[in-house]
User: Fold ABC-2 type transport system ATP-binding protein from Hydrobacter penzbergensis.
Amino acid sequence: MQKNIIQVKNLHKKYGDFEAVKGISFDVKEGEIFGLLGPNGAGKSTTLEIIETLREKTSGEVWVDGLNLDTSPNEIKKLIGVQLQTSGYYPGLKLVELIRLFAGLYNEVIDPYTLLDTVNLRDKAGAKFKELSGGQKQRFSIATTLINKPRIIFLDEPTTGLDPQARRNLWDLISNIRKQGTTVIITTHYMDEAEVLCDRVAIIDSGKIIAMNTPDKLIDELVATGFERPKEVKKANLEDVFIHLTGHVLREQ
Ligand SMILES: Nc1ncnc2c1ncn2[C@@H]1O[C@H](COP(=O)(O)OP(=O)(O)OP(=O)(O)O)[C@@H](O)[C@H]1O
Assistant:
């Protein structure tokens, strides 16, 4: 039985009079990729930022690896890796310089080149952040979440705005990070991404969890209600055509 590395119980968050998170509860098991899915404004980022200790909750309880968020936020910070928005990096610094800077903040000694290898960016070590493509920036920002050797990483919409190949490359990267034993919590608007990557997902709507299970079981439950797609679906879609024609290999734009 896997242990619960994150437990969230009856979490509420109000911004003034507006309640963005309305009493949600869920557990994340150690070593899983857990997805928070939901439309714009559902409360996904708010929930993530509360667990990341970056935002105050209104009420409810959160534990990370047995540590209570109210009493041990600093200990929790040491266990987690948080992805910055790509606007959060000094654009004029080289990748190796940025890694050394972050490592210094975490008081970690790491080899920047080894870290860049894990995200396939060694050949960009001397490039400035602003010179990277969108996909490369995302890969680099995922690399920086790993600097403090976290047990859990939080990825907020990591593939938004990327082309189909860059998205698939990030899926491979995220799967590899999990294979090393790191727990991953991810938010996404892409259902194909959640289906491929996530062991379990919670679907959030208007601040409430309306479903939670493995993608497979959620689909089976829907089918069991008699649901059928309105028309026969072809064996491939336009994205398959695009990937078939342009390849799945890593491309540097
Ligand atoms: N600092 C804030 N002050 C006031 N309202 C906020 C603040 N941050 C978020 N909200 C509101 O809370 C709700 C939830 O926002 P949140 O960013 O958590 O949603 P989300 O599910 O991550 O959405 P998206 O998919 O668009 O990123 C939204 O209605 C948003 O406008």
Remarks:
- Residues 15, 20, 38, 40-46 surround adenosine-5'-triphosphate (CB under 6 Å).
- The mean pLDDT is 90.
